[in-house]
Write a structure and sequence with these properties.
47 helices
């Protein structure tokens, strides 16, 4: 390696960037100080340059920019940076001390980019600079804090560590480094891995992990189709011994991957540097690999032998068998060290290998299915074979999720061991970028984030222009349709469609989601043409028929990462070209096996399966995001199928079967309703009926389980049914018990349906109005029978236009009054009866309500007081006999003296049968005065009859009760009275005297009460003085 490390007092970054940060005054000061410091050496040169710059046509003004020795050398010069180690350390330390601020993260990402630039320029100081950065990262005081507190590091910080680890993989995979350099790096990496605070490879690592709850037969099936040991020799191109990066993620799960011995024997958890340590032992000496890297025309001319060694495909094109992360790490290292063409050649070989392994996995799956069918035919009595046979049938929307055990397969079909999307090295993104970069239009200079930049937790820098691609044929390819762009798209599709197990931790799951979103966003930037559509079609078919090796295949593991986001991209891309295939992909991807696996644990209609999955281990932290994507896929398919009845029905059935969240199903119903009723444009009745059916399922799901949006859901369903028509309204009222609670059915449902606005909107005929009214009355009576306390009033309102139904509802209330209805509910219904002109029925209900009312002596602010006044006023207005029946109940259940005395006075103001005044109330809406026009004596003038006497029944009993209540209340209040309440007590005694004197011997009774007080409470001198002063 050329270049030398010049450790003088210079600068770290490209000096032009420092100059850009200075304003005019700072630049002038800088130049003057520089000349002053070295005036004898630089003054002539400075004067000469100044003269040339001032000449407009001088050569220096014709050249854009200026030379900068800190930016690296030209191609022919010695590659050496002027590196100031102290400044590197200080800057990194400063950025880390700022925490997860946007500017600090941006600066640290710039440092990583600088290291990449140094590697590309083959500057020997790249590794040294990364060493300095790493040591500062390990000295970050937050690491100790996070470790002692047991809290995970922030996502932004973790993303920086991931980039650091990936950079070290690039460093140690330098194809031209010496053995001494490798040994030096190995010592450094081993030293860092034993540092106590060194972050682990798995950010969600738990010291004692529980094993996954899955059966060995499922694992065996997945790995029979997915994993393999490469049969080719090192010399022939198998790359068999070079697998250090293959199972690095598996090791963190211990018992999850028993076939990985290193996972169970490693005493130290793997750190972020272990991948780089693994890569130190990788070699570039394989002859087959060297041939791939050095020549575009390297191929085999003996097809028969090519398949035996595995080094070439059927067309004689070279393949490279290594775990995909390892392959991608090689490609990234080649790119990073400036070997762009070699990286491109290796990427092409890797993608061809992926395609071949994909097809072999597909063929093996078909063979296993045929074996299962044969076994089922020969021994049909075994249930396991019957299940296996069911798996062989075409599956368009749902698979069983738990396939039967298969017979042992031949050596497995590929060597891609772990999940690619979400991998720390982002192998799919690296291969895609390498191939897409070769397809860029030459004059496309749009800046974009490189593949090694993983913006987890980093703010978006704003919109950028999409890249402009064109097809560049692969050099020396025997397939005319094969271009770098088609291979880029194909590797992204294979990676996104890979069947992979959901990682265990929150960070890993979010990383997987974000890498998937980024890959799809890159694919969406590519303008589709016939060649790319053909690639999409071919991959969609292969993925659908790929069995458990494909995320869209049959027989996948229940904990597989769902394909909703990817399938939505495929659906939209294929819809205008191959609609049948698009719908097959969308329907197959709708499944969510992790929830369907637990359907037996909970009621699939009423149970909350999602909460069960969230409480198990490992948790699916991103389940909410996954269900949102599932809903978006279903919504997209519904919108596309709105004009096709059969497809709409198929999508509806799939959504009803696979969407387990009532909230997401409700969102889907709202989307369908919006698509069916556009503001401008024709309505879609079939899609509207789909929205209605989805709404019905939402009602059934949330009927017995809590959902905070239940009220909104009920109101929306009534709105949707109104749009569908009268038949839908009749249907939900006739089947209300399956959809609503009695309170909902008589309240927001039936009341809204029977409202004047609904009738006018639907423009109903009289016959249709009668049909709706009849259904509403039947519903009201059923609900009132089932839940009288909450439904009686609404039921009476709905039945008031039909005498028999109204009488039936009234009788239901009477029957329920004695055992399940409260006095408040009965008073409310009684007031309604009075308002509707049924005073006798109101009186009967008021009597029933009074039996349930109890007021103690000190409850003079009880909420039932207004109702008690109203009941007594109603009794008085009906006549003496009614009042005579009411007063014993009043005396028995009310011990509050002020309430009794108030009623006593009001009943004595007019004769029975003539309305007495209602008490003043703050809630005027509770009291209705319409009864005066209906009561039998309301037309008589009070002057024709004498008011009731206090000395005769029924007021005599009420007066005696009021006097006794005042006596008891007086003694009770005196027991615990304080000086601040003396004034209130004197006022209370004044009211008591006003009531006492209504009796013929009341004055004497009151005098006796006062005398007894003076004797019993003579110790309260101040109070007794006030009593004597006021009452003598």
């Amino acid at each position: 390696m050329r270049g030398s490390c010049i450790l003088t007092k210079t600068i770290l970054l490209v000096f032009a960037e420092t100059l850009l940060q200075m304003d005019r005054q700072q630049l002038q000061k800088f130049i003057q100080y520089l000349i002053s410091e070295h005036h004898t050496e630089v003054l002539p040169t400075a004067q000469k340059l100044a003269d040339e710059i001032l000449l407009q046509r001088s050569e220096i003004n014709q050249i854009p920019g200026a030379p900068d020795p800190t930016a690296g050398a030209s191609a022919d010069d010695d590659h050496s940076w002027h590196l100031d180690e102290e400044q590197v350390c200080e800057q990194v330390k400063s950025y880390l001390s700022q925490g997860s601020y946007y500017n600090a993260n941006k600066q640290l990402n710039s440092l990583f980019a600088k290291v990449r630039e140094m590697l590309r320029a083959r500057d020997s100081n790249g590794a040294r600079m990364l060493t300095l950065i790493t040591e500062q990262f390990l000295s970050d005081p937050r690491l100790i804090l996070w470790k002692t507190q047991g809290t995970p590091m922030t996502d932004k910080c973790r993303q920086l560590w991931d980039q650091l680890g990936a950079l070290w993989v690039c460093i140690v995979l330098n194809p031209h480094c010496s053995l001494q350099e490798k040994q030096h790096w190995k010592v450094l990496l081993e030293k860092w891995t034993v540092v106590d605070v060194c972050p682990q490879e798995d950010p969600d690592f738990r010291p004692q992990q529980m094993p996954r709850q899955d059966g060995p037969m499922n694992r065996n099936l997945v790995h029979n189709a997915m994993d393999s040991s490469d049969s080719s020799s090192d010399e022939d191109g198998g790359g068999g011994p070079h697998r250090p990066l293959e199972n690095s993620r598996r090791s963190r799960h211990g018992t999850q991957r028993p076939h990985n011995p290193r996972a169970s024997t490693s005493a130290i958890p793997r750190t972020v540097f272990h991948r780089a340590l693994d890569a130190v032992g990788m070699s570039w000496d394989n002859l087959h690999l060297k041939n791939i890297l050095s020549s575009d025309t390297y191929c085999s001319h003996v097809p028969d032998s090519s398949m035996l060694c595995g080094s070439f495909n059927s067309q004689g094109q070279p393949l490279w068998h290594e775990p995909l992360p390892t392959c991608a790490a090689r490609v990234d290292a080649l790119r990073s060290h400036g070997h762009r063409l070699a990286a491109l050649r290796l990427a092409v070989a890797v993608v061809r290998t992926m395609k071949q392994q994909q097809l072999i996995a597909q063929r093996r799956w078909h063979e296993s299915q045929q074996q299962q069918q044969h076994l089922r035919g020969s021994s049909s009595g075994h249930s396991s074979h019957a299940v296996a046979g069911s798996l062989a049938t075409p599956c368009t929307s749902r698979c069983t999720g738990i396939p039967p055990p298969l017979p042992p397969l031949p050596p497995a079909t590929n060597s891609w061991g772990e999940g690619w999307v979400g991998h720390p090295l982002d192998p799919i993104g690296c291969l895609f970028d390498t191939l897409a970069e070769a397809s860029l239009v030459p004059d496309d200079q749009t800046p974009r984030a490189p593949s090694y930049f993983d913006p987890v937790g980093v703010e978006d820098t704003g919109p950028t222009l999409p890249p402009c691609y064109h097809h560049m044929p692969v050099v020396a390819s025997r397939d005319r349709s094969e271009t770098y762009l088609t291979l880029a798209v194909e590797v992204a599709l294979i990676g996104l469609g890979q069947q992979r197990i959901m990682p265990a931790g929150l960070y890993a799951q979010e990383k997987s989601c974000k890498q998937e979103d980024r890959l799809i966003a890159k694919l969406q930037e590519i303008e589709l043409d016939n060649s790319l559509v053909a690639v999409l079609r071919r991959q969609a078919i292969v993925l659908l028929e790929g069995g458990p090796s494909s995320g869209l295949g049959i027989g996948i593991h229940p904990e597989s990462v769902p394909m909703h986001t990817f399938a939505r991209f495929l659906f939209l891309s294929l819809l205008n070209y191959y609609p049948d295939l698009a719908y097959e992909v969308g329907l197959r991807a709708m499944r969510l096996p992790i929830l369907e696996e637990h359907e037996d644990s909970d009621d699939p209609v009423n149970g909350n399966v999602s909460s069960l999955v969230l409480s198990r281990y490992p948790r699916w932290f991103t389940l909410g995001h996954i269900e949102t994507q599932q809903c978006a896929l279903a919504s997209t398919m519904l919108s596309a199928a709105k004009g096709e009845v059969l497809r709409l029905r198929t999508v509806l059935e799939s959504a009803q079967r696979h969407i387990h969240s009532s909230s997401h199903l409700f969102k889907l119903a709202q989307d369908a309703f919006r698509f069916a009723t556009p503001e401008n444009g024709p309505r879609h009745p079939t899609l509207l009926s789909v929205a209605f059916e989805l709404g019905l399922q939402v009602m059934r799901m949330t009927l017995s389980s809590l959902n905070w949006r239940r009220r909104e859901m009920v109101r929306w369903l009534v709105t949707c049914a109104t749009e569908v028509g009268v038949e839908a309204l009749v249907s939900i009222m006739q089947n209300w018990y399956q959809l609503f609670t009695p309170t909902e059915a008589t309240g927001p449902v039936a009341t809204t349906i029977m409202s004047h606005s609904t009738i006018m909107r639907l423009n109903l005929t009289f016959a249709q109005q009668d049909e709706l009214s009849s259904c509403a009355r039947n519903l009201a009576l059923q609900c009132a029978t089932k839940d009288p306390p909450n439904c009686a009033l609404n039921a009476l309102t709905l039945c008031e236009n039909e005498a028999l139904a109204f009488e039936t509802a009234y009788q239901i209330v009477i029957d329920a009054a004695s055992h399940i209805m409260t006095s408040s509910q009965l008073f409310t219904i009684a007031r309604y009866m009075e308002h509707r002109g049924y005073p006798v029925r109101a009186y009967k209900l008021a009597m029933l309500a009074m039996k349930n009312v109890h007021l103690a002596y000190n409850q003079d602010t009880h909420p039932a007081i207004n109702d008690i006044h109203w009941a007594c006023a109603l009794s008085h207005s009906l006549g003496k006999s009614e009042l005579t029946s009411m007063i014993p109940l009043l005396v028995k259940n009310v011990q509050c003296a002020t309430v009794l005395s108030d009623i006593l006075r009001r009943c004595s103001m007019t004769a029975p049968g003539v309305s007495c005044p209602h008490p003043p109330t703050a809630d005027g809406s509770k009291h209705h005065h319409h009864h005066h026009h209906h009561h039998r004596s309301s037309t008589r003038c009070g002057g024709g009859m004498k008011p009731l006497s206090y000395d005769r029944p029924p007021l005599r009993q009420l007066l005696e009760a009021a006097v006794a209540a005042y006596v008891n209340t007086t003694h009770s209040r005196l027991t615990h009275i304080s000086p601040r309440h003396y004034g209130d007590f004197i006022d209370f005694l004044g009211k008591a005297r006003d009531t006492f004197i209504l009796a013929h011997d009341g004055h004497a009774q009151f005098t006796q009460l006062v005398e007894n007080m003076k004797v019993a409470y003579k110790g309260k001198k101040k109070l007794m003085f006030l009593v004597k002063e006021r009452f003598g």
